[in-house]
Records
---
Amino acid sequence: MRVAIAGAGAVGRSIAGELLENGHEVLLIDKAPTAISVERVPRAEWLLADACEITSLDEAALQRCNVVIAATGDDKVNLVVSLLAKTEYAVPRVVARVNNPKNEWLFNEAWGVDVAVSTPRLMSALVEEAVSVGDLVRLLRFSHGDANLVELTLPEESPLAGTRVGDVSWPDDTSLVTIIRGTRVLTPSREDSLEAGDELLFVAAQAREQQLADLLSVRREDDTRR
């Protein structure tokens, strides 16, 4: 897979290193000469150019890329790169970094963004995920279909503990994609049983998140009296 990364700062270089380790081709693009540090990621291709310019993206042969990652520290640049990648070069997958959470609403399909990654939101979500049991935590937002990657650690008192996956009436527009049980990562089948302490990862429509939380969590006395 060929991946172009706009922004060769610490974030871009780190992503490039991971992708190269996994056997992918990586092109790093940055307009700042000081950012071109070939020795830091020697196996990547490097291009000194402005990723917001069509001529630069032509030189980068963006049409040959399977994925473009807009990873600069400027949200305006990341939006322009995403839009150009999708509309001018028909890149199948565009991932964009959100630096300011106030701008997150802009990073959607209209701007060519398939997946928006907000570092502040992700960090806060990971903190919540580490300390929360029984609460639904949103980890990642997908622009297409208004879907999110969400996580919930099943509490001991959950009525679904011990229930087979295939026997649960899941809300529409939700899919259980992974069960993390201790050190194991399970691809759920209909016969697998849910256990207290399981970390459940779902892809769910935002409108269904509350239904999912209500289904999985413990019903409080206050709720039953309403």
Note: Residues 165 and 190 are 5 Å apart (CA to CA).
---
Amino acid sequence: MRRKVLLVEDDELIREFVSDYFKKEAWEVYEAQHGKMAMELFALHPVDLVVLDIMMPEMDGWSVCRKIRQQSDIPIMIITARVDDDDQLMGFELGADEYVTKPFSPKVLVARAKALMKRAEGSIGRGDDIAQFGALTVNKRAHTVTIAGVPISLTPKEYELLLFFIKHEGTVLSRDSILNGVWGMDYFGDHRTVDTHVKKLRAKLDTEQHLIQTMIRFGYKFEAKR
């Protein structure tokens, strides 16, 4: 089946350029020129990925990201000219999975989108299909996480982070090692990105008191700040 992407960008030239590259890779593309149109298209068409600009008329990308995340755990990539660390952290706090700054190569953007989809579809974390930690169960084949049988909704990046902790159970992990392992060597964000995602992941998992100890077993033993 063809993957479907909702591309939200108010600059017509950028939108058409990026859209062409997605189509060359056999993606079906829905285009929106502002946030209000994006939400209308999102309600009408099931998509696999949202690529979202921030500075737009009628409804900005922050608002769109927040609204989509309230409804769905679909992967979200933010593209923007805003390069401040605080802006990137804002995106991640709202639930974005990738943050790409302008100018960028459309070819590389599509490659990163494909990589994100592979992770979201569960092609990472190979090994035993079921990981059990107390009341926490991770089904890698089905890409599901449950606590005492209750489904836990995780974004693709939160799920990838959880699998990284499981893979390195009992290992002392630095923030740098987590950035490299989960975000990749080419990611230029700072350590606050790790802290933000771990905080959100723990908030979702800490519905039972003993799960804090479970997270420690995963390797959440950050090196002391210098």
Note: The first strand starts at residue 4 and ends at 8.
---
Amino acid sequence: MPRGRYSLHDPHDHTPLAEEHFHCAPGPSGWRYVSQLTAPSGDHLGSVDLALDELGRPIRLELHTASWQVRGAALDGVTWVRTDPTGAHATEGNVRAHAFTGSSPAFLVATTRLLRLAPSSSATRVRLVAFTDPVLAPRTVDQSWALVGREAHATDNGPLTVDEYQVTALDTGERHTVHIAGDVVLAAPGIELEDLASPPSVFD
């Protein structure tokens, strides 16, 4: 069960935003990721709980910040409920999209589990609902993902396979690169893996 810590920063000016302490693991139904977020000051910022089925679809998502929470799942596309902490102000949403995304590295792994891309295959388009920090406002985004490289690196625990993805935002044409090993993000814009207590999981 991989367990570790990511640092999250603004990808443009590198301002530190948060630390995300996580653990994740494949299970009989798919894959689950749980994390707690803390501000640079040490204050608690929120949490992420994401569970995927064996096909990579989100069967449960729970996001919490200081002021908002979201619960969602894949249902007629994706469906979610966004509420304030008291539950007095709840709004429901539904979009014909494939999955969710957001600032957590969990969503990058989840998208790769959903797409199951092969090296040198053509880019695949995916529609996602992004929840923006800190108010968890939903926004529909279209992206293109391509697996452009796969390399095996020798480690003390055996070979580690690292996949390099090129991700394109279809509304702006902006491209960036994401490196993932198993269910751990090694590098991505705004994300750095600072600590990892055990090797990434190996998926079939």
Note: The first strand starts at residue 3 and ends at 9.
---
Amino acid sequence: MSAKILAVDTATENCSVALIVDGKVYSRRAVAPREHTIKVLPFVDEVLKEAGVRLQDLDALAFGQGPGSFTGVRIGIGIAQGLAFGADLPMIGISTLEAMAQAGYREHGATQVAAAIDARMGEVYFGMYQRNDDATWTYNVAETVFKPEALLTYLPEQSGEWLTVGTGWDAYAEALAELPLERKASEVLYPDAEDMAFLAQQKFEQGLALPAEESAPVYVRDTVTWKKLPGRE
């Protein structure tokens, strides 16, 4: 039987919560960058009640570990750790970029996905992922932060069609249009807890869950240079 996973993500403008129990997904989401702290716990309560389970009944708690807004990532892990400590649950961090790759497969069946999140300050968080036969993802280009024009010299020519996901493609459309990629656009703009919960089930089965006190965000650039999303406090 698959693990029962609750996922929480506030790393970008999208605030989302998802619960997978016995193959069924219960989810809530809202693009509300200034209201994550207000919305996320009520979302948690709603999905637990809808599924008819208690937090203590779950196997693990997943969270969006970044990259994303410094403040947003910290909010997400703080809330997730509080819930995990209270229910004595292990935690699983999920890359926001990999979650968007999974969304590209879930919504479009894409097996090659290029993810770009607007990182502000003229930069993008960028990663490229290929789906394996066992439904896991391997990165073709590891997640990193770049000025869009720098990607032109960093990125080798890629084969096949790549589905593009994330806010970075619109934010830096002119520069990214020069990349040597055969691209197909999608409406996937943000990571979502539904995809994080699915990926967390895989990682749980692989024994990759950690005690809550050992869970941490992942930053791909020095925290000194982080700039908050509009409306972040």
Note: Residues 223-233 have pLDDT under 50 and may be disordered.
